[in-house]
Amino acid sequence: MPKTDRRINRTRRQLADAFIQLCLERDYEQMTLRDLTERADIGYATFFRHYSDKESLLNAILEESISTLISSVNALSDQPELMMTTLFKQLLEQPERYQMLVKTRHISHLLERVMTIGSAMFIEQFAHQLKANIPPDLAARHVIGAVINLIEWWLEPSNRIDPKRMGELINSLIMQPLKDNPALER
Amino acid sequence: MPKTDRRINRTRRQLADAFIQLCLERDYEQMTLRDLTERADIGYATFFRHYSDKESLLNAILEESISTLISSVNALSDQPELMMTTLFKQLLEQPERYQMLVKTRHISHLLERVMTIGSAMFIEQFAHQLKANIPPDLAARHVIGAVINLIEWWLEPSNRIDPKRMGELINSLIMQPLKDNPALER
DNA sequence: CCTTTATGATACAGTGTATATCATAAGCTA
DNA sequence: TAGCTTATGATATACACTGTATCATAAAGG
Q: Which nucleotide is closest to A48, CA to C1'?
C-alpha cells in the first residue's frame, strides 16, 4: 500500500470535503478549481497532483462511496427490505456526501454505475417471480431508478423519516408490484 | 407578437437543433459555444443576441417542450393511464429533444419544474384514495420521479415499446400501488 | 424601393484550466 | 534526533472559452 503519507490523505480529505460543500452550496458547473482549492485550503497547483480535473475528483468520491455502501449491504441481497433499511441507515452517516452524489448523477454516471452493480443482484432475486409481460430490463431499471429517486427525496433534511419505514415503503411501492402474486402485498 | 422575423426563427431553430445533437453526441459540459454555433452554422456572436448563455438556451428549449406536452395531455388528467399513453405518443414526435432534456435534468431543474406542475394534478387525483401511512410528499415525488425514470429508459431507441403498453405498465407499477384497494390492480 | 434590423466577421478583455519550476516544509526511516 | 525523501505553496505561463463591442453587409418587412 504505497499511499500512506499523511499529507496525501489530508489533502484528499480536504478536497473531498470542500467539493461536497461547494457542490451543495452552489452547483457543480459553477464551482471553479480556485473556489475549491481555496475552500480546501490547499495550493491551486496541488489539486492537479492528485486529480486530473474536477470530474476525476467526483469519480473518486463516487467509487469510494459505492465501496462503502456495497460492503455494508452486500450480505443482505436475499432480504430486500432489510437491505433497504440498512442502506438508509448507512446514508445517514454522511448525508451531504450522498446528496452531492445524486445531485451530480449525470456527470458521474451514477445510474449507469448502480445499474451495472444492481442488475445482476436484481435479476437473481426477482427474475423467477416477475409478473408476466413486464420486460426484465424495464423492471430492473424501474427498481434502481425509483429507489435512487426516493433516496434523493429522503436526503432532504425535512424528509428523513425512519429507515425501517423507508424499507417498508420501498418494498410495497416498488418491489411487490413487480411480483406475480399481489396477495403478498403488505 | 413582435417575434415574426424569419431570420430570428431560423437562427433559434438552428441553435436548438444543434444543441440537441451535440448534447447527445458529447455532453452538456463539454459542448462549447464555438462547437454549438459552428454546428448551427451561425456566427459566434450571434448566439448572444438570442440567449445570455448556454443554460439560457437549454431553459428555452425546456419551457417550449413543457408547453407542448401540457397542451397535449392537460385535458386527460382524470384518466391517468390514457394520459400516460398520450404522453408517450407525444414523446415519439421528437425523441432526441426529450432524451436531451432528461439527460440534462439537473442543469435545467427538470424534476423541480415537473413537480411544480404535476403535484397539484397528482394531489387532486390521488390524495383521497392514498394508502394509509404513505406521506403525500413522498407519493407525489415517487410518481413524478419514477415516470421520468421510465421515460428516460423508454427513449433509448431499443426500448421503445408500445405507448399503450407503457401506460398500462406505469399504471400497474406506479399508480395502483399507491392506492388503498389492492383489488384494483390489473 | 427604401428603411429597418438581424447577421457575420473581427478584435478584445476577462476568467478559468492545466503545466512547469523552485524553494520550503512536512513526513518517513534509521 | 539526524538526514533523506517527498508533498506542498507560490509563482509564471500558455492556452481555451466566455462575453462584449464595432462595423459592413445581407435579408426581411412595409
A: C18
- Tens digit of pLDDT for each residue in A143-167? 999 999 999 999 999 999 999 999 9
Q: Residue A2: what are its φ and ψ, rounded to 5°?
A: -80, -5
Q: Which chain B residues in 37-76 sit with Cβ < 7 A of strand D?
A: 44-45, 48, 52-54
The upper half-sphere exposure of residue A120, i.e. CA atoms within 13 Å in the direction of its Cβ, equals 4
Q: Which of residues 86-115 of B touch A (CB under 8 A)?
A: 103-107
Residue A27's SS3 state is coil
**A169 close contact with B: CB closer than 8 A:** yes
CA distance B47 to B40: 10
Is the separation of the CB atoms in B158 and A137 below 8 Å?
A: no
B2 touches strand D (CB under 7 A): no
Chain A touched by B176 (CB under 8 Å)? yes
**Cα–Cα distance measured from residue A103 to residue A105, given in angstroms and rounded to the nearest whole number:** 6
| Paired strand residues for A104 | none
pLDDT tens, position by position, B94-121: 999 999 999 999 999 999 999 999 999 9
For residue A71, the SS3 value is helix
What pLDDT, on the 0 to 100 scale, is given for residue A31?
98
Tell me the three cell numbers of residue B84: 400516460
Residue B138 touches partner A, C-beta closer than 8 Å: yes
| pLDDT for the residue A185 | 44
Contact B106, B140 (CB under 8 A): no
Helix runs in chain A, H state only: 6-25, 33-40, 54-73, 80-91, 95-103, 105-108, 110-126, 136-155, 163-170
